């Protein structure tokens, strides 16, 4: 699961200033690659907006620079999600939600669009980077999805970075779990409403210079979920999907309706009608809304365009293609 060549490319990358105003490229630059990342679609509190913007800058700028230098889409999406898993602003890896038993169980998946190989883990604990374990399942096993103790045993055998629950737990999540145990059920029942304060899934999608697409998604799941609960992030087609003929998608939000909508594949299939990523993601969100679902989706298409849509109060997202780079959180912030 090591990425020696890609790590070298990333060390050489120089992050640039990225804000809600896109950084434009020189006229004449021919870009045939694209990257989109997200840090969750939910009601991000005012006081957490800056942390979400900042947390997206490094994965977006270094990942996009690596694509420019020839890195594969698969390596880039894993790299970007690993950085997001390590940022406590997001509900993935460090900073993940506790389940109702006070345990950390995480889900992740990854998929490449050339042969549509995929790997996933669900309800896994004790690993630093679930997305890398998911890639190991894809590349080092005959399986697509491993869960619970079996996924953890595989991670150990594959040489994944193991860790304690304490090293992943942040005080914010312990405080919320304690409040829920004391009777504040509103932290659970309104998780994706305008009054909620949850933390969202992370994900990345990319198109590389060779026309290959890939997608990856990782999460700590919903607040106070039942032990063993699995949402969309571990399920290929729902949380993650990639097909070189069309594009790639990663989803975030309330997992149960996203599962029923098969949202990631719905978004990618919408590209087949000639829609761009922005229009295709909006079409997918309309399907989610039919199921009373809340969330968001990021997309790249085979033409090198990136886009995102969401129906929650805010969504942390970063987009990079031939138009430039942008990190956005607010609904009013529009991609070019």
Mean pLDDT: 86
What is the CATH topology? Glutamine Phosphoribosylpyrophosphate, subunit 1, domain 1
| CATH A-level architecture | 4-Layer Sandwich
- The outline comes out as globular
Number of strands: 12
Strand content: 15-25%
Q: Domains counted in the coordinates: how many?
A: 1
The name of the CATH superfamily reads: (Glycosyl)asparaginase
Low-confidence stretches: 1-29
Quaternary status:
single chain
What can you tell me about this protein's structure?
With 336 residues, this protein is α+β, with helices and mostly antiparallel strands. It has one domain (31-328): Glutamine Phosphoribosylpyrophosphate, subunit 1, domain 1 (4-Layer Sandwich). It has helices spanning 4-12, 49-68, 73-85, 130-140, 148-158, 165-168, 171-181, 186-189, 255-261, 263-270, 277-290, and strands spanning 34-42, 106-112, 118-124, 145-147, 202-207, 213-219, 240-243, 247-253, 295-301, 306-310, 314-321, 324-328. The strands form two sheets. It has an eight-stranded mixed sheet. The chain has a four-stranded antiparallel sheet with strand order 7-8-9-10, with helices on one face. A hairpin with a 5-residue loop joins strand 5 (202-207) and strand 6. The radius of gyration is 18 Å and the shape is globular. Mean pLDDT is 86; it is low at 1-29.
List keywords for this structure.
eight-stranded mixed β-sheet; 11 helices; alpha+beta; disordered N terminus; four-stranded antiparallel β-sheet; 336 residues; Glutamine Phosphoribosylpyrophosphate, subunit 1, domain 1; single chain
């Amino acid at each position: 699961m090591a990425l020696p060549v890609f790590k070298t490319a990333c060390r050489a990358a120089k992050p640039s200033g990225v804000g809600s105003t896109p950084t434009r490229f020189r006229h004449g630059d021919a870009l045939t690659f694209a990257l989109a990342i997200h840090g969750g679609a939910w009601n991000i509190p005012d006081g957490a907006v800056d942390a979400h913007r900042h947390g997206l800058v490094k994965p977006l700028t270094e990942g996009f620079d690596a694509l420019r230098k020839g890195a594969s889409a698969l390596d880039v999406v894993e790299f970007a999600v690993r950085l997001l898993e390590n940022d406590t602003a997001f509900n993935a890896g460090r900073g993940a939600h506790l389940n109702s038993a006070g345990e950390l169980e995480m889900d992740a998946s990854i998929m490449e669009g050339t042969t549509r190989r995929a790997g996933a883990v669900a309800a896994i604990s004790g690993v630093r980077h679930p997305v890398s374990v998911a890639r190991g399942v894809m590349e080092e096993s005959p399986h697509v999805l491993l869960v619970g103790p079996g996924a953890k045993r595989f991670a150990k055998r594959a040489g994944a970075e193991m860790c304690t629950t304490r090293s992943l737990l942040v005080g914010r999540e312990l405080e919320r779990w304690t409040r829920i145990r004391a009777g504040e059920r509103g932290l659970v029942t309104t998780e994706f409403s305008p009054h909620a304060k949850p933390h969202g899934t992370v994900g990345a999608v990319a198109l590389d210079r060779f026309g290959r697409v890939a997608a990856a998604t990782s999460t700590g799941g919903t607040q106070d979920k039942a032990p063993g609960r699995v949402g969309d992030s571990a399920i290929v087609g729902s949380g993650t999907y990639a097909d070189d003929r069309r594009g790639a998608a990663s989803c975030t939000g309330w997992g149960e309706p996203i599962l029923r909508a098969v949202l990631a594949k719905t978004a990618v299939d919408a590209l087949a009608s000639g829609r761009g990523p922005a229009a295709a993601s909006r079409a997918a969100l309309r399907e989610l809304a039919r199921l009373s679902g809340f969330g968001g989706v990021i997309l790249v298409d085979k033409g090198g365009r990136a886009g995102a849509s969401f129906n929650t109060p805010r969504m942390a997202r970063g987009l990079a293609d031939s138009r430039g780079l942008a990190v956005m959180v607010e609904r009013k912030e529009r991609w070019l």
